[in-house]
Structures are given as structure tokens and as C-alpha cells.
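Lecture 7, part B: from sequences to assemblies.

Below are the input chains for today's worked example.
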Amino acid sequence: MPASLLEEFAFALLALLAIAGAFGTIYAKRVAHSMLYLIFCFLAVAGVFLLTGAELLAAIQILVYLGSVLLVVLFGVMLTRRQIQEEDFE
Amino acid sequence: MAEGDWLDIRGWVEALSFAIADNTVGMSRFWRQKGTTADILTELIMAVVVFGLIMTTMLVLLWIERKFFARIMDRRGATMAMRSLWVGEGGEHVDWYGLLPFGTGAPFRWLNRWLNKVAGSDHEVESVARVRDRSYHGIWWMLPGFFQNIADAVKFLTKEWMVPTKADKVVFEVAPFIIISSTIMLFAFIPLGPHVWSANPDLSLLFLMAIFGIAPLGVFFAGWSSNNKYTLIGGIRSAAQLTAYEIPLLVTVLAVAVLSGSMNIIEIVEFQMDMDGWTLFLLPLGAALFLITMIAEVERIPFDMPEAEAELVEGWWTEYGGLRWGLLFMAEYLRAYAACLLFAIFFLGGWEPFGGNLVAQYTAFIPGIAWLLIKSWLMFAVFVWVRASLHRVRTDQILEFGWRWLLPLSLVNLGIAVWLRLGVWQGDTWSPLVIGLITTIAIALFVLLAIDEDPTALEGRERPYSVHVKAGPAGPGTHKK
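Predicted structure of the full complex, as C-alpha cells:
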């Protein structure tokens, strides 16, 4: 398999992951679920950056955005009403 | 000496994979890329080699934790380890083979007698027998503690995997994946020697720190999805802790990169080897900050609030059991191992031998990986020492400590690094005056700060929450009195 074909295959996979993650972020019912999707979306975008050779951008993407996602989900869990403890998931 | 040592594992693997590619490529008409095949083979084999090296040498970490910690805290069980099978506690062992029917336990009795004769506690000098009863038999009789790891692994493997009924099942399963995979990914970027590494991008330092920060996410999701108030508190504490130490850690690492003039880990080590001085002597403040923030990053005892087994049952991994728990625990130790390796690489000269260029020609037969591993194991002994000595901080304390002390000090450290690089660096070496001056100032400050304790505590030697028990030192048989 030529390297370029491998790269295209990887790009397709990562792009699909990023799109799926973005849709999941929107349509997830729970804050934490949507943040988990957002993490996968960001990781996939970092992978796309890596494929294009922008290594610095990929590292910064993981370093900055994933830490901030954690804070966002932290406030999301802390400041929103939450039925955990009382009822089942699904 | 940037050329490295004789243990050229990467070179051998490259030669091997090119030989394999030479002999196999071309068998099919779809498979003609010789260079690509050899590259992929090299990377695969190097990844396996590095992973295997890390996993096997990690056993030493668990052993240091058990033995050293047990020595410091005077715990009998862990110091006895394997030998307790035949020596028993205080000279008495469980006579389980006597319960077997028809005398089938006789071989075990013979074995037990023989083992006690060869490796027992009896010695004509009483003090020697006492020391032996605490399982100190010199280096060889301390080694059997390794088998405890295998026993633990078998225990984890045979346990049932249970998911709480009210847990968020998907996230509950995904969170260990995030933690364990990001932890193992760390070792892709940590070089174990000049020729023993798995990946070496130009920005390996940045990638490493980026991946180091992923695991707290997994910790948070693990705590959240367990649907248990203790795990949730543990997960939120992990996130709160992250805000306190992550920025000082990154700024400290940035100072190391500024001083070395590179964001590549191998070049950072080569910088220290070329200038023949460890960064520890140039940035002692940075070393202290890195040690503190790294202990917070790997969540070991002074900063293990997410786990906090005294308050929150077992913190965020309360609901995990069996093999998942074992793997998470392994990931915890792997992160501690990565922290030790990074401290050795950034501040202790990596694979430079002790003594630097003075002894380099005499120690050339020792591969660099041996020096790096010895340094990182010593660092882990320091971690264990810290764990045995200090108590856990509170959430507000670590936040205050992180924002009011660690962050300004790390900025000062960055300023020092910039000044050293731009104002003092002479191109290929440091004047010995600089290293001597900085080290003297650091030692003087350390002594001043170490002496400056709470005077009342020093006078009374009273710990506020301790229970004053009149107990002598523990020894063989003291539990019976």
C-alpha cells in the first residue's frame, strides 16, 4: 500500500471520527457524554493536524483544548441539575 | 559525547528489518515498497522493545515501593514477602500440610524444613537471627519479593468483572481505555538511551506533556460514570488538582527547554552531556518545582486527593475491580515511572554516567540505559520516601499552594533559565563559577528553609494529632506480649 493511500485512509478515518464526535457533542443527552464526544473530536482534529505535518499545532491542540474541556465538563457537572444517584442511565 | 554507546538497539533493529524486507518484499506484486516495509517493521519492533523494557523494569518500581516503604514504616508483612511461606511470623508458620490426609503433606514438611535450614531465620547470634526474621538476607533474599507481583497479577486475572447496576456503562468502560492508553503512549516519547527509543519527533517534549495531561480526563470520567458519590468527589478533585499544578509544570518544563535550547528530549540530554553538567545544578529551583508538580501529576501521596483512601473509600476507582483495577493500578505506576524517568532525563543528565566526562572513558562498557534506569529508580525511592514521610494535603491547600507559590516560583525559574541561556551561556560550556555559585545558593536556601520550621513543634516534638503510645520498636515476637 503506497504511503499516500495510507495517509488518505487515515485522513478519512480521522475526519469521520471528528464529524461523528461533533455530532455526538450536539446530540448527546448528558453533559459528560457530549464532553466525551468533544474529546474524541479534538483528538481526531489533532490527528488531522499531524497528518498535514503541523506537529506543533497538534501538540498544542491536545495540550490546551483537552485541559480546558475538563474544566468545562467540571463546571457543566457542578452547575447543572443532575439526576445521577437517583435513577438509572437508560 | 553525542555519539551514544555500544548498545545500538535501534541500529540492530533497523539492520534486521532491512534484511527481512530484502528477503520478503517482491513475493507479491502488490508488495514492492522495500523502504516503507523496513520502516514500519523497525517502528513496530522498537515499540515492542521499549514497551517490554518498560514493563519488565517496572517490576523494580513495585519492589522498591514494597520493600522500601515497608522498611520505612516498619511493616512486617511486606518485608517478609515470599519467605513468610516457610519462615512464618515470629518463627511460627501455618501448619497447613499437617492437615492433609494420609501423610500426603510430608513432602511439604520436608521442603519446609529444608527451606528453613537453607533460608530460615535461625542463626547462632541472636541479633542476626532477628535481622533475618525481618527478611533482610542481603540482596539475594530480598529478591523473592518480585514474585508477589505475579501473585497479584493472577489474583486480578481471576477476579470477576463487575459493573455497578446504576453506572453509566459505556463511559465506565471507556474511561480505563483513556487512562491506560494515554499512559502507555507516554513511553513512545521517552527515550531510554541514545539508541533505545520508539519515536523521536522534533517536539517530543511537547507531545509528551500533552499526553501526560490526558489521563486526568479519564480519571474524571471514571469517577463520574461510577454513579457513586465518593468516586464523583474523587474525579472532581482530580480535575481541581489539575488546574493547580498543570500550569506550573508546563512552565517548569518550558524553562528546561529554554535552557537546553531544544524541545527534543534526546537533545536535552545531549545538551547536558555536552556541557558536562546536569540541569539540576543550573536550575535547582526548577528541579524542586518539577518534583512537586510531577508528584501531583501522578497523584502520589502528598497530592493523592483523588484517591484519598482515608476519606473517599478508594477515590475515583472505588467501583473498579478485577483486571480493570489491576490495569489502572499498573497505569498509575507507569505514570510514576514516567515521572521518574523524566526527572532523570531533564535534571539528572539522562544516560550520562555519574561523574560525567571524567569517568566516561572508564564506564563506556556500561550502556546508557543502565544509568538512566538506576537514576529513575533512585528517583522513585525518593517518591516512596516522600510518600512515607508526608501527609495528604487538602483540596484548598493544593489550590492555594499551586496558584500562590508554584506558579510565581515557576515564572521566576523561567526567568532564571532565560537569563542563563542568553546572558551566561558561552556556546559550548559553562564557567564552573556559575554552577558552583548556583549550587551553593540552592544548598544555603534549602538549609535555611529546612531549619526554619515551626519553633513550638521543634521544642515540644509533639505532633498535634498523634496518639502517644508507649511502645517499643517492633521486633520478632513483640506482637505476642
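Note for the exam: Chain B has a mean pLDDT of 79. Keep this in mind when comparing with the next example.
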